[in-house]
Automatic annotation (TrEMBL):
Protein name stated in the entry: Histidine phosphatase family protein
Matches recorded under SUPFAM superfamilies: Phosphoglycerate mutase-like
Keyword field contains Hydrolase: yes
Listed Gene3D superfamilies: Phosphoglycerate mutase-like
Organism of origin: Defluviimonas salinarum
Amino acid sequence: MAELTLVRHGQASLGAANYDQLTEIGFQQARWIGVYFAESGDRYDRIVCGSLARQGQTAEALDAVVEVVEGLQEYDATDLPNAAGFHAHPASDRHLHFRQLRETLLRWTADALNDAPESWVDFPARIDVALAKLAASERTLAITSGGVIATIVTKALGVESSRMIDLNLQSRNTGVTRLIRLARGLMLNLFNAVPHMASAERAALATYS
């Protein structure tokens, strides 16, 4: 059986001029996930990441050769809400951020955002193209983002695309998701696990952005 392990990037810089950078907490989360994989003894035929800075910065903690694969990058977390009429807000108001993001994604998946930088149809389609590039490997580890992971899991479960939103919004930074590739398609084996943050001290630094 072939395995596809997906890891969400570390915490990004919500509210900063450039969201696409890890915070200090994000870098710490990345170091923890790097140590976890190093100590697990797991071996991967291929380690890849998306083209975003936060994905690459997380991948650097794995201390391995990492290949950038186009298609594993997240939807645009700035322009998509702007297309929904929401604008930048302080990082301190995280409740507002997630309410607005949920509304944005509901409208996006319903094809109700006329000025979206990427359509809902195009987003899962380019993820499928990226997955096809990885299909030949027996064991692949991919550093990507919450929306990408949620979209892949939604397809594996065979549920309606709008369920992607719930999965996306509960995705933890550096959470580990694993799928098994069978002849009939992908089967979910593990979702959003953070074994590298099991202690109370580390759990206090769990984040969702």
